[in-house]
Amino acid sequence: MTLAPAIGETSPEKLLSPVLSAFWDDPRPWSLDTYRRHEGYEGLRKALAMTPDEVIAYVKESGLRGRGGAGFPTGMKWQFIPQGDGKPHYLVVNADESEPGTCKDIPLLFANPHALIEGIVIACYAIRSSHAFVYLRGEVVPVLRRLHEAVREAYEAGYLGRDVLGSGLDLELTVHAGAGAYICGEETALLDSLEGRRGQPRLRPPFPAVAGLYACPTVVNNVESIASVPAILHRGKDWFRSMGSEKSPGFTLYSLSGHVAAPGQYEAPLGITLRQLLDMSGGMRPGHRLKFWTPGGSSTPMFTDEHLDVPLDYEGVGAAGSMLGTKALQCFDETTCVVRAVTRWTEFYAHESCGKCTPCREGTYWLVQLLRDIEAGKGRPSDLDKLADIADNINGKSFCALGDGAASPIFSSLKYFREEYEEHITGRGCPFDPARSTAWADNHVEVTA
Amino acid sequence: MTDVQLGMPELPAPDYPADVRARLEADAREVIARYPDSRSALLPLLHLVQSEEGHVTRTGMRFCAEVLGLTTAEVTAVATFYTMYRRKPSGDYQVGVCTNTLCAVMGGDAIFEELKQHLGVGNKETTEDGKVTLEHIECNAACDFAPVVMVNWEFFDNQTPESAKRLVDDLRAGRPVTPTRGAPLCTFRETARILAGFPDTRPGAVEAGGGAGPASLIGLKLAKGEALPPRVVHPRGETAEEPPRDRAPHDRPIAGSGHLSSHDAPQQTSASDPKHPAGPVSEEGE
């Protein structure tokens, strides 16, 4: 049985389910002491009492799916690692959180790094790995500091190093800081980067499970996926499955941002709706209404206020024509120009395209040229079809999903806001005043709000 | 512009002085030991040489190549791929304004424009006193704290043009500056050393800034039945009021087209800095 929150439910106590974020308000939530006080490393003890294959089966049966965007079942990823092949196996945690709008792993690692480390030990035990890596984007030094400290504490306490808790598992954990490249969030580019190369995606197959880091079997998992594993082991797969839906069980972090009254992290069972999140948190900023939003970062096709009741789980968002992605709910109100927003995202993709595949490298460049012209009032009516055509020539035609991500905002904004593009062309410029969109634009009215 | 070389080979970069080299080699051994394959140490080693000189020099790249058994071409190819490696002398404080869509719309564009005016520098340029290098950056995973400014990759959340101008003024005047989350600021070189994998040893650095930022705790507070805190206030003594910005429409920065950014402009390649031309007559360190 699964319990999806009732549609009419509005009480945050019933709708939210803090697990990973449950003690972030403690005075020192990042420390081993605090983590242990909140039953930290208990899941690991349970895992070590099982065989590695049993752990893999257990995680598979829990239904945990990847929290980094694609939603691939975590246990299945672990199962793909060939056993008894005589090669080293590696676990690489993708902490290169860079998808525009996405801001869950960074606060998670800042406040609760031990959840990740415990998950790493469990995963490495399961896939028979003796060396794990955390690839953290370099631009977040406060998080790196706490990760360094948490790893030091974990070694000292015997959760890492030789013979972890007497289990016979030897495990090294290396924290690796990246150097600024969105593309390294793509798992094969991340592996190339971790090997000391330019971060460019690899052609698949072979998949990382067969030939990943140093051409050895490798699991690449998102931070939140791995950090969710200890609670599943400790509190049980049935507890986990009691949240969310049949195909999207469990809890997850939703990141609300933009023109909302209370931006922040909301940990809830999968399947909550944006309407429920907004209702409990004061809605949009006073006096404004929702215009468009992304369910999971800029690479997921945008939604409008028609989609407020879409269940935010893998199936629900997929059925509505987008992707759950990273649950980065970036909300923009009616003061925001959609052409400006899409232009900026497209500039981002053009900047971050690694240049390996021609459709993405050239296509994103030309999209930017067209969009800048349209925004500046120099566009032609035929440019809109040209935009769609170029996006279509990028989508699905490159090694990795960066190009697909670049096409998403183009397709979806043309679908819902074509008239706004036309207005820029016929009106010879942007009808919006960017000053009205700023966080401080309404400060004079907010005093009374 | 890059000097035309017509195939003239470039002399190797000079080595570090012997004592510097010995110290860096000891550090490099420690970094390399963390990886099953030495080449994996290249990114941290580039952070390490950046911590030595404030940017990645040809000398630094030569050092990385030598300790890893790579060619300088291989190292250069990597160093020029990643945006965090600076390729020319830059300021003690790298001030990055997020101008990806969400932060830009929430005010990042206005902050970046004001800082350019205020400091008299453009994107990726450094103030004359060598203190501040200004750049616009991409999404830094703090959208619930928008608009975000990063200084040496520490978070300055919920900024306004006024708070950002005060911030850079304080940095230039040498007044202490505290990030909204995380430890007291260190210089760019010290930051680069942490990025190379050497933990921050300053007492209290890990503790500083508290457990989690206010926005990170909002869902938890609601789940516990607590009332929502009042709106997150601006840091650093910012008042709620911002003077209304009365500018004619044509004066205001035009989003996108006015975004004179590095986005897809031709990027300088590694040795194209005019102060360090890639030629046999000029060597770094001379």
From TrEMBL, chain A:
Cross-referenced Pfam families: Complex1_51K, NADH_4Fe-4S, SLBB
Might you name a Gene Ontology BP term for this protein?
cellular respiration
Which domain of life, per UniProt? Bacteria
**Keywords on record:** 4Fe-4S, Flavoprotein, FMN, Iron, Iron-sulfur, Metal-binding, NAD, Quinone, Translocase
Q: Does the keyword Cell inner membrane apply?
A: no
Enzyme Commission (EC) number: 7.1.1.-
**InterPro entries xrefs:** ComplexI_51kDa_subunit, NADH-UbQ_OxRdtase_51kDa_CS, NADH-UbQ_OxRdtase_suF, Nuo51_FMN-bd, Nuo51_FMN-bd_sf, Nuop51_4Fe4S-bd, Nuop51_4Fe4S-bd_sf, Soluble_ligand-bd
Any idea where the NADH-ubiquinone oxidoreductase 51kDa subunit iron-sulphur binding domain is? Answer: 339-384
- From the UniProt record, list the coiled-coil ranges: none
Q: Does the keyword Iron apply?
A: yes
SUPFAM superfamilies in the record, alphabetically? Nqo1 FMN-binding domain-like, Nqo1 middle domain-like, Nqo1C-terminal domain-like
- Which GO terms fall under molecular function for this chain's record? 4 iron, 4 sulfur cluster binding; FMN binding; metal ion binding; NAD binding; NADH dehydrogenase (ubiquinone) activity; NADH dehydrogenase activity; quinone binding
**Class of this enzyme:** translocase
**Cofactor annotation:** [4Fe-4S] cluster; FMN
Reaction(s) the record says it catalyses: a quinone + NADH + 5 H(+)(in) = a quinol + NAD(+) + 4 H(+)(out)
What PANTHER family does the entry give? Answer: NADH DEHYDROGENASE [UBIQUINONE] FLAVOPROTEIN 1, MITOCHONDRIAL, NADH-UBIQUINONE OXIDOREDUCTASE FLAVOPROTEIN 1 NDUFV1
State the similarity comment. Answer: Belongs to the complex I 51 kDa subunit family.
Q: What does this protein do?
A: NDH-1 shuttles electrons from NADH, via FMN and iron-sulfur (Fe-S) centers, to quinones in the respiratory chain.
This protein's name: NADH-quinone oxidoreductase subunit F
Q: Which organism is it from?
A: Streptomyces roseolilacinus
From TrEMBL, chain B:
Comp. bias (Basic and acidic residues): 235-253
Does the record's keyword annotation contain GTP-binding?
Answer: no
Which reaction does this chain catalyze?
a quinone + NADH + 5 H(+)(in) = a quinol + NAD(+) + 4 H(+)(out)
- InterPro entries, alphabetically? NuoE-like (IPR002023), NuoE_dom (IPR042128), NuoE_N (IPR041921), Thioredoxin-like_sf (IPR036249)
Tell me which UniProt keywords the record has, alphabetically.
2Fe-2S, Iron, Iron-sulfur, Metal-binding, NAD, Translocase
Q: What are this entry's molecular-function GO terms?
A: 2 iron, 2 sulfur cluster binding; metal ion binding; NADH dehydrogenase activity
The reply to whether Metal-binding figures as a keyword in the UniProt entry is yes
* Cofactor requirements of the protein: [2Fe-2S] cluster
Q: For the region Disordered, give the residue spans.
A: 228-286
Q: Which family does it belong to?
A: Belongs to the complex I 24 kDa subunit family.
What the entry lists under PANTHER family is as follows: NADH DEHYDROGENASE [UBIQUINONE] FLAVOPROTEIN 2, MITOCHONDRIAL, NADH DEHYDROGENASE UBIQUINONE FLAVOPROTEIN 2, MITOCHONDRIAL
Which NCBIfam families does the record match to this protein? Answer: nuoE_fam (TIGR01958), PRK07539.1-1 (NF005721)
Q: What does this protein do?
A: NDH-1 shuttles electrons from NADH, via FMN and iron-sulfur (Fe-S) centers, to quinones in the respiratory chain. The immediate electron acceptor for the enzyme in this species is believed to be menaquinone. Couples the redox reaction to proton translocation (for every two electrons transferred, four hydrogen ions are translocated across the cytoplasmic membrane), and thus conserves the redox energy in a proton gradient.
- Can you say what this protein is called? NADH-quinone oxidoreductase subunit E
Q: Which organism is it from?
A: Streptomyces roseolilacinus
- State the taxonomy lineage: Bacteria, Bacillati, Actinomycetota, Actinomycetes, Kitasatosporales
